[in-house]
Design goal:
about 240 residues, mainly beta, about 60% strand
Length: about 240
C-alpha cells in the first residue's frame, strides 16, 4: 500500500508543470537555461538591464528569436513544426534603477512522445542607471559644448552649451527627434549664436559613426557674422546586446 502511494505521488509530479526559479544573471552576457531534455532558452540582458534578447531552441536549433523592451514587454509564442511546438507567452518586467528585472514564461513544449509545460521566471538581472560617455568641444575661450551619449544603442544625446562652467542652453536628441533648432539668439560671453541654429544627430551603426552636427551663424564683439558648420561630437558604436 505504501509503495502504491509513493508511485502515485511520483506520477503526479510528472504531470505537474515545471515551475522555474529565478536566477540573477550577469548583464551583457548570454545565459542558457534548460526547459526540459530537448528545449532551452538563451537570455542576454542589455548592460542597463532594460532590454533583453531571447532565443528559444529545440535540440540547440533556434526556433524563436525576440527582443523584449519596456515598451514591447509581452510576446505571444506560437511556433509549430512537423515534430513539435512551442506555444505560450513571455513577459519582461523592468525593475527600477538598482532593482531586479525579470523574464517570466508560461510555455507549452511538445515533441514526439512528450508534452511539458514551463511556468515561472527564466532569469533575473540588475537594472542600472547608465550616465553615458561625455565629449567636449570648445567654440571659444569661454564657450564650450558638452555632449553626453547614453542609451543601450548609444542613440540618446544631451547637448549643453556652457559659459565657462555655467550651463546656458541644453537639448536632448533621440532617434525619434534626431534634430533641433535653437529658437532665439544664444549669447555666451562675447559670442552669439544666431537664432535658427541647427543641431542634428546621426545615429551610430555598425557601418557609420554617430555624430552631432552644429550648423549656425556666429558673431562676436570683434568679428562679423560667420557661418559655422562642424561635428561637435562623434563616437563609434561599441559592441551591444544585439551583436552576435
Amino acid at each position: 500500500m505504501k509503495t502504491m502511494r509513493l508511485c502515485s505521488s511520483f506520477l503526479l509530479l510528472l504531470l505537474l508543470p515545471y515551475v522555474g526559479r529565478s536566477q540573477v544573471i550577469e548583464n551583457g552576457k548570454y545565459y542558457q537555461k534548460q526547459l526540459g531534455s530537448s528545449f532551452s532558452a538563451k537570455i542576454k540582458p542589455s548592460q542597463s538591464g532594460k532590454y533583453v534578447e531571447l532565443v528559444l531552441a529545440y535540440k540547440e536549433q533556434a526556433i524563436v528569436t525576440h527582443t523584449l523592451t519596456a515598451t514591447d514587454s509581452v510576446t505571444a509564442i506560437d511556433s509549430r513544426w512537423n515534430t513539435g511546438s512551442i506555444t505560450g507567452t513571455i513577459k519582461l518586467k523592468v525593475g527600477r534603477n538598482h532593482q531586479i528585472s525579470t523574464l517570466d514564461a508560461n510555455l507549452k513544449l511538445t515533441e514526439p512522445g512528450d508534452n511539458n509545460q514551463f511556468v515561472g521566471q527564466l532569469a533575473g538581472w540588475n537594472t542600472t542607471d547608465q550616465t553615458g560617455s561625455q565629449q567636449s568641444y570648445d567654440l571659444g575661450t569661454v564657450c564650450s559644448i558638452k555632449t553626453t551619449i547614453s542609451g543601450d544603442n548609444q542613440d540618446i544625446t544631451t547637448i549643453i552649451f556652457y559659459y565657462v562652467n555655467t550651463p546656458m542652453y541644453n537639448i536632448t536628441l533621440t532617434p525619434v527627434t534626431p534634430s533641433a533648432t535653437i529658437p532665439n539668439d544664444l549669447t555666451i560671453g562675447r559670442l552669439t549664436i544666431a537664432k535658427g541654429a541647427k543641431i542634428v544627430m546621426q545615429v551610430p551603426s555598425k557601418l557609420q559613426k554617430g555624430y552631432i552636427q552644429l550648423s549656425c551663424t556666429i558673431t562676436s564683439d570683434d568679428h562679423d557674422p560667420a557661418k559655422f558648420s562642424a561635428q561637435v561630437a562623434s563616437w563609434d558604436l561599441s559592441p551591444s546586446i544585439f551583436d552576435h
